[in-house]
Every structure is written in C-alpha cells, then in structure tokens.
Amino acid sequence: MSRVVVVGAGLSGLCAAHALRRRDIDVDLLEASPRVGGRIRDARAATGHVFPLGAEWLGPDEERLGALLTDFGLATSAQHVEGRALIEVGGERAAYAIDESGPLHFLPLPATDAGKAVRDAFAELDADCDRVPLDAPWTTPDAERLDRMPLHDWMLDRLHDAPARALFAAAAGVEVGTRLDRISLLYYLFLRRAINRRIVDDRRIIGGTERLVQRLAEPLVQHITCDARVDAIEQTATGVTVHAAGAGYAADRVIVTAPPAAARRIEWRPALPPDRAALLQAITLSAVVKVIVVYETPFWRERGLSGHSLSDVGPLQTTDDASPADGAGALVGFVRDRHAERWHARPTADRRVAIVEQLVRLFGARAAPAGHPRTRLGRRAAGGGRLLPQHATGRADPLGPGHAPPPRPGPLGRHRAGRPLDGLDGGRDPLWRAAAAEVVRSLEVTR
User: Nearest CA to 38 among 423, 417, 426?
Assistant: First the structure.
C-alpha cells in the first residue's frame, strides 16, 4: 500500500488525510502541537456557552464545506445582521443601515460624500481585478508596477480627503487584517477577485467550529501523531523520509499543510527550489486578537443595533453579534494591525479596560460586563475571518513561479500548503484537495 505523510493536523491536513484514506492510501498525520485542529479551537464560557476562538464563519460560496457539514450532520445558524451598524471612523461616530449589496457586504458604507467616494474607489478596484487571472496573477498586465505599489499609496492617489481615506483604510483593513502599506495593489486585486469581490460570511456551526475538526479526526485517530514537530524532510532515491520528534517516517509522498512560519523551520534535503524558498520567506501572517464578551441579553438589539461596528479608533476594529440562541448576549470583536502587534505587551487589566471602554463608547453603559473578556491572539492565514497572508511589495514572484512545479521531480512534488475552504480559491479546488489529487495521480503513474 502506498504511504503519504501529511504535515500539520489543522483543517487542511485533516481534509487531505481524509481524502487520501478514501483512496486506500495509508497516511501518517503529524502535528506539532498536543491537539489537532490548528487555529480552530472552541472555548466554554463560565455561562456554559461554547464560542469559537479561531475560525467561526462560513459563507454561501463555500459549497464543499457545506457538503461536508451535511455529511457529518452538523447544522449552522445565521449570523444576526438585523439593525443598524455603528461606524467610528475619521473622528465621527454614527449608526447606518447595513447595505448587503455593498462592495463589502456587511461592512457599512454611509450615505455621505466619504461613503460615495469609497464606493467609487471599490468599484474601480473591482473593474481592475477583472484583469487578474486567478491561476496566474503574475501575468496581469503591468504586474510589476502593480506589485511594487502598496495599496496605501493607491488609496492616497485615488482619495484626496481625510474622511474618505480613513473610511477606505478601515474597510479594506478588515479584509486584509493588516496595514495597507504592507500589501501590494496586485495582491489586493488578486484577493478581491478570489473572494468574488465581497466578504459574505453569514453562518456559523452550531455548537462550535471544533465539532467539524472532531468529526474529521475520529476516523483518523490511528493515523495521527501529536507532539511531533517536523524537523527535516529528506527526499531519497525511493521516496521521502520525514523526521519528527526523534523518529523517521518513510513514505512515497509528503504534503505539507503547516503555516509558513512552521514550514520555514523545516530543513529540506535537498533544499527547496529558490523560487519556492523565496515565497516561503516572503509570506508573513497578520496579527489578530479575537475578543468575546458575554452578556445576559443582547441588549443592543433593543436599540435597533445589529452589533456590528467598524472603527479606526480601536482597539477593536470590528465587532459582531455572537449571541447564542437561548437568549444570552455576546459580542465578538477583532483587534488588528498596530493594536494587535502590541497587545500582549500591555498588562491584562489595561487590555480589559481598553476593550470595555470602546464597547461602552459604542453600545452604551450596559456594555460593561461583570466578568472578563475572553481573548485569544492568533496569527493565522485565510480562515473564517478572512485573516490573510501578507506578501511584501515588489515581489510578483511569490504570486507566480513559487506556486508552479519546481524543475526537480520527485516525492516532494509541488511544494503546496493549503486553505481547506473554497472562498480564496475563487471557486476552484482548495489547495488541500489539489495536493491530495496530485499525490494520487503521481502514485498511480509510478505503480
């Protein structure tokens, strides 16, 4: 029987292993941490309610994920969006109706001069992203210039007044999870096209996202080894050997789904092709802190508010209604960008005060909770909240040849890592599926 080692037991790794086992391929699934699931993890609050600390939402475009949930008998509930959204941007604070047809779906753009200017700016970006081939974005006309221009510089050229710039920076920042000067215009156009120009994450798994991980892991228990950080991957004349936790795992092929920071620590023998190694070094992940505050009731609904907010003051850049179905209330928020990067340097009491002060400023005195906000710092790529990898500007090659097959064939094959869902793949196969299919094809050829 053919054997494949899958590195990383997050959702991508679990899905890849699942697909291989259905083809009667033996699998060793190696996970560096003590648990499976990667950035998907739930927590139980003192009230007994379960809240996802990592990936939380899914959208209607993620058809394969929806089919998987159906197969496992997992139900979803709709994100509460009824009511007005709060905007705290450019020194102004106001409530606006959510325009679900807008360029950012649930993110409100007010009917002001600044809102109109930002809508026009997104319309221009969306027209430009039609020129970006999803399978080969580096072939976009004028790709080098677009890749050397930070999105922030494009904004300064396109928008000329402070309120519009502040609104655009806050709205686009929700998509990319980082400062706009850290990503190129080409990369942003690619992302806009890949998500079909709008973020539409409107459902969550009842009982927590970790239930999906548990269902995937159950039939793979005998194949999973935790606390097994991979130190080296060695290509041999007959296959590949993965060295982890003092043991060697021989296999015909290997699929690496570990995040870039973990993959960079692996010693590759022989070394990765230069373009792939450069890609791995160029990718960083944005810092994001997720905050959940639980209340007795969703009191903001009484005021006709949806619970959604957008702020450039912070520390929370966005909030949403995460209330359970039993009548309790909960707000989930995200600390991003400069606030997130300095978050753990602040004393715990200061962090709590900063969060509560903002929630009270937005939602009133009843937003001061009796307990403590539950927080989690995560550095994660394109998952439930659209937290994205960052490519440095002036590097069109990370979007290009680094994802193509290297010239050297063999068990290491295409050096892929992947996102398990559909959204950022523009409706194409998610990368874990493409990697698993490639492995199956290559093993069939060599039999």
Answer: 417
* Residue 119: CATH number of its domain: 1.10.405.10
Per-residue pLDDT tens over the stretch 225-273: 999 999 999 998 889 999 999 999 999 999 999 888 888 899 999 998 8
Our count of domains for the chain comes to: 3
Region of 169 on the Ramachandran plot (φ > 0 left; ψ -120 to 50 alpha; else beta): alpha
- What would the two tokens of residue 306 be? 């949806």
Alpha-carbon gap, residue 318 to 299, rounded angstroms: 18
Give the list of residues 6+ apart from residue 304 with CB closer than 8 angstroms, or none: 83, 84
Grouping H, G, I as helix, E, B as strand and the rest as coil, residue 223 is helix
- The string over 135-167, giving b where at least 16 C-beta atoms fall within 10 Å of a residue's C-beta and e elsewhere, is eebbebeebeebbebbbbebbeebbeeebbbbb
Contact by Cβ (8 Å): 38, 210: no
- Parent domain of 246: 3-37+209-270+408-446
Q: Which residue has 């590949």 as its token pair? A: 240
Q: Note whether 25 and 56 are same-domain residues.
A: no
Does 414 have pLDDT greater than 50? no
Indicate the residue type of 116. K
Burial class (CB in 10 A: 0-12, 13-18, 19+), 387: buried
